[in-house]
């Protein structure tokens, strides 16, 4: 297949008339899980369509959770890539590394990269999100990091090797996983986690579950402070101390900020696309321009920006067929689900784990069970006779069964009396 810049679409159409009525060239911006999954899904269906992938990074796709393993020292740099470079060649995917897309000309169906214009029939925005750095007083400082890319992970490892006291600001999933990785890879580090909210993992846990997690973390040597709002980072050049809003101070020589991410809207706004918290898409993952789609962290569907891997995969697979004009069910959202180890503790959080109303509506029921030793906690959320959410902390053997119940929307009448028994085996 001939590859080139702006005139290749017309040239290829003349050579291959059977594609003239369909998509000749699809361009993907972003080689993350959403962009790479979409490109693969398009290629699996259509062997002829041209596919180009543009990324700012210097390496092919790697799963971002692998960054945690890299920091922990359990995976080296050479093993972090998901596909070898020759996989792209075998699948006829043209990958442009170190290639930042500077702007999109939506009416002209072309993008500007490195001084050149590249045309497209369909464009997919999969350019993800950027780590959010709150405007703390005292910034910038050396040895203050966010984690989003392999380059970030390399800088964090290098700094950790020469540090003794590390503070992770942010008690969400990424913050706790980063703390675990640093504690694993650098066991002599004194580790502290700060969370401005009332407890850790506000999106995945309720207060009783978080109490169990926090107590376990403290028993393993990681200090945890909640209701701890960072106000200032002090130090002459490099960070030496954190000042909290309530006046408390913490000594440190390294800080990792995990305060969430924000969809990268630069290209979407520049192209004149409708945006909110993300680039707004419909149930076909199409933006306000019929030739442009968006998937993954950059996409906003039904008022939500998901920022998780399962929705990125769902969106990418559906959008791949939509890009090709094939019949496929529309995207209707994704049930949020996380199954992982947090500081070495098994955690599954799926679906709705707390009511949006206070007090909860009458049809909303919460059933909790805690083991005698206080190390296992289960919570099941029931609405209208169906399980809509669950927390499993310290246990993972029931994960598959519970996940199936929630996703299928099955009635749980036969199970209701057993849910409060911490020893009940769902398997």
Q: Any idea how many domains? A: 3
**What is the helical fraction, as a range of percent?**
10-25%
SS elements, strand count: 25
Cα-atom Rg, whole angstroms?
24 Å
In DSSP terms (H or I, runs of 4 or more residues), the helix count works out at 10
Envelope shape: globular
Name of the CATH architecture of the largest domain: 3-Layer(bba) Sandwich
Concise account of the structure shown:
The protein has 427 residues and is of the alpha/beta class.
Based on the model shown, name its key terms.
about 425 residues, alpha/beta, FAD/NAD(P)-binding domain, Enolase-like, domain 1, 5-stranded parallel sheet, 25 strands, globular, disordered N terminus
Describe the structure.
- With 427 residues, the protein is α/β, with parallel strands linked by helices.
- It has three domains: 8-130 and 262-323, 3-Layer(bba) Sandwich (FAD/NAD(P)-binding domain), CATH 3.50.50.60; 144-257, FAD/NAD(P)-binding domain, CATH 3.50.50; 337-418, 2-Layer Sandwich (Enolase-like, domain 1), CATH 3.30.390.
- It is 24% helix and 26% strand.
- It has ten helices and 25 strands.
- It has helices at residues 8-15, 33-45, 65-72, 85-90, 150-160, 173-185, 207-219, 266-270, 309-323, 399-408, and strands at residues 25-29, 50-54, 93-96, 101-105, 110-113, 116-119, 122-125, 129-131, 144-145, 165-169, 190-194, 222-225, 230-234, 241-244, 249-251, 254-257, 261-263, 279-281, 292-294, 299-301, 337-342, 345-351, 364-370, 377-383, 386-393.
- Strands 3-2-1-7-19 form a five-stranded parallel sheet.
- A hairpin with a 6-residue loop joins strand 23 (364-370) and strand 24.
- Helix 2 (33-45) packs parallel to helix 9 (309-323) and helix 3 packs parallel to helix 6 (173-185).
- The chain is globular.
- The termini are far apart.
- 39% of the residues are buried.
